[in-house]
Structures
1.
Amino acid sequence: MLSESVADYLTEILRLEEAGTPATTSVLADRLQVARPSVTGMLKRLAADGLVEYAPYRDTSLTRCGRTQASAMLRRHRLVETFLVRALGMDADRVHGEAHRWEHAISDDALERMDHWLGRPAFDPHGTAIPATRQRQHPRLTTLDTDTTAIITSVDSRDADHAKYLESLDLVAGTPVTVTGRRPHQGPVTIALAGRTHVVGPEVTEYVFIRKERSS
């Protein structure tokens, strides 16, 4: 588990990258409300630990390891925010500080149970994507053989509108889905679920993750 200060730096750099904003020393000092010399010292430490790429007078970026760590922490934060709003009825614009306290204390087991209870949400209450680390453990819907049924484990959409579109097709976690037909040359596939049939392309199948159950 990262220390709170290290996690705060990594997640803030990742947030800046998501927003397309350069992670300069001055910007980080302003966002984290610390002195610039403190930021410089921490960035040097993170660089020595292989978590960031840092050089004086240049923008700081996350290494692959740093991005993995930051993504995992942002996942914790945004899942907790979602829980606070959906389960406890807190206002979305007031949950950031509370989620920041929870994210450093909640166990991995509790977080997994929270994620399951929430239905594997793709977005937090602010419409920001929740980093989805679990999907890598499951194959995509595009890999499902014809006449084979699987359970949807998670949906990793690109944006809020895309997520709503997938939900309108009943492509949500826990739903059984069967591929009933497939066009040649990597064409669209026909799927059956929730009593409905859809013909979908990679804009759908690439973002839906499954657990194979049985063949028919």
2.
Amino acid sequence: MLRLKSAAAAEDLVQEIYVRLARVGDDAAIEKPAAYLYRLGSNLMLEQMRGQRRSAARDAAWVEAQTMSLGPEPVADEVAADAAVAARQRLAAIVEAIRELPSRTQEVFRLHKLEGLSHTETATRLGVSRSAVEKHMIAVLRHLAERLA
């Protein structure tokens, strides 16, 4: 167990020894049973340790291929789960707050903030003055500030 560093690995080794011994026919003559058993256990243990090393090397290679590092520290590609949930909740609150606004104000917001039109382009598209667009945007920002504060 000391060499394998795990009780479970030692149990697996004992099982494998038993399986191998069961395969040996009754007619097989083993001159030195204790030496045979010792050699069998040693060989199986070495096989198991080599397999663990190969597995660890394969896992380390996969992790290295899948992650980015900045010096010795790995850089996470994903946002933390709690941050993602908080962002979704905040977005849902914003969408709900926008839906409470009059339809014209919602349209001004959509054109300006989501489609990226300037105030002048939004005004031209909707057939209103630039000042009207600015007033709608001020109303949106005030409403969001009140609802999300």
